[in-house]
Design brief:
11 strands, alpha/beta, about 280 residues
Length: about 280
């Protein structure tokens, strides 16, 4: 057990952060990454075609980043988050990948908690705390440090409907009873997901053939489950603050879900178009 623990703690984590034309939110996310109490990680910005404003923000942040930071950009041809995450994975050097969205602000122990939960043969499905539109705007406009929220602040935000959770901000649950032996659709979010690189390569990563928004993250988790990778629940340990945003167009959601359901039944493991199908930017 001790040798396993040493192996996990010595592992460099690669945080792959997807973004699209929201440099203020991305800046808040990166500032929180810079403040992590575990600095043994790197950052890959997986950019789904943002304009020069994002590029300029990333360049400025890169100059003062305390950890390695790489910006991977692809042409804006519509919603292609699966491709962006695959390209981010290919650029990463770590053997454990944490996927994070560019509007999800991690708490100071985010990396440390993911490292504690990382066990071979398992993925970690992280958790999020939703912020409403007014408080999200305030966080960005006033550059609020969410790590400094006091108990009274957390209570006020929850009672005012500005957040959707409270207990997850007050307690941390140890690594006990987290493994799910059966597949569940609940809390599959690639905005906060930890996966061993070897497992991603085994299933060929995210499937780039998915069109539009919806369920490319569920598809990945289904195929990992089919490959024998168990799922750990990251609630009460890995919470991130999810800034409010307008929902993306969901015209392809039902057809994408149908694909996932079919793959769950068929036991599909490999993505039709994934890590082994590199696409130029």
């Amino acid at each position: 057990m001790a040798s396993i623990d040493i192996m996990q703690r010595a592992t460099t984590i690669s945080v792959v952060i997807t973004t699209y034309n929201r440099p203020d939110a991305l800046t808040a996310v990166l500032e929180a990454c810079f403040a992590q109490d575990d600095r043994n990680f790197e950052i890959i910005i997986a950019d789904d075609g943002s304009s020069d404003n994002t590029r300029a923000a990333v360049e400025e942040l890169k100059r003062r980043s305390p950890v390695p930071l790489t910006h991977v950009w692809q042409e804006d041809l519509g919603f292609r988050a699966a491709l962006a995450r695959n390209r981010g994975t290919l650029a990463a050097r770590g053997d454990y990948i944490v996927f994070l969205d560019g509007d999800c602000i991690p708490q100071r122990d985010f990396i440390a908690q993911h490292r504690k939960l990382a066990v071979r043969g398992h993925l970690v499905s992280g958790s999020r705390i939703l912020l409403d539109a007014p408080f999200s705007a305030r966080v960005l406009a006033e550059h609020l440090d969410l790590q400094r929220l006091r108990l009274a602040d957390k209570l006020r935000l929850r009672c005012g409907g500005h957040t959707n959770k409270l207990l997850q901000l007050l307690f941390t649950w140890p690594d006990l009873g987290r493994v799910r032996r059966r597949f569940s659709w609940r809390r599959i979010k690639s905005c906060n997901l930890g996966v061993w690189r070897a497992d991603l390569e085994r299933v060929n990563g995210f499937d780039q053939s998915f069109l539009g928004w919806g369920h490319e993250d569920s598809d990945l988790v289904v195929r990992l489950f089919n490959a024998g990778v168990m799922r750990k629940d990251g609630a009460f340990a890995t919470e991130v603050f999810h800034l409010w945003h307008k929902e993306s167009a969901r015209d392809q959601e039902s057809s994408n879900r149908d694909i996932v359901l079919r793959r769950a039944r068929d036991g599909t493991i490999q993505a039709a178009e994934g890590l082994s199908h590199p696409t130029p930017p």
